[in-house]
Amino acid sequence: MAAAARENYYIKNTLICLLKAVEGKVTTVELRNENAVTGRVDHVDGYMNISMSNVCYKSYRGNMTNFDSFFVQGVNVRYVHIPDEIDMRKAMEKYIKLESDAQNKVQKRIRDAAMKKIKKRQEAVLKAEKRQEEKEETVKQSTDKVADQT
């Protein structure tokens, strides 16, 4: 699922990139209301909304309920346990590299467009100079003919 530009910004410029690394793993999400949800993280978006499956919901009173799927709004997340198997540094570097690659692509496109524009202007200038030379040659020939006739 493709993320919108604003979501991509949040993913690449906040610690949400760590949550993206948790996708596909089993972890616990602690909620602001003292409840906790443990299950497989299916998807995390740029606003920290989390879709989970095979969930065990534990209320602050200790009651447990199982759900096939569960959705946690980002504003309700207090804490997400990052599994030990995830290398946080590599997860963050992955998104930093993606951002760097994206910036390089944009810079290359800008550079290529500028070079194309410069080349087009140079060609236009050369054509204009050539036309000017042809005009001057025509004028010279005309003045030479008039001078020969007199």
From TrEMBL:
Pfam families: LSM. The lineage of its organism: Eukaryota, Metazoa, Spiralia, Lophotrochozoa, Mollusca. This is Sm domain-containing protein. SUPFAM superfamilies: Sm-like ribonucleoproteins (SSF50182). It comes from Tegillarca granosa (Malaysian cockle). SMART domains: Sm. Residues 14-86 form the Sm domain. Residues 127-150 are annotated as: Disordered. PANTHER family: U7 SNRNA-ASSOCIATED SM-LIKE PROTEIN LSM10 (PTHR21196:SF1). InterPro entries: LSM_dom_sf (IPR010920), Sm (IPR047575), Sm_dom_euk/arc (IPR001163), U7_snRNA_Sm-like (IPR052840).
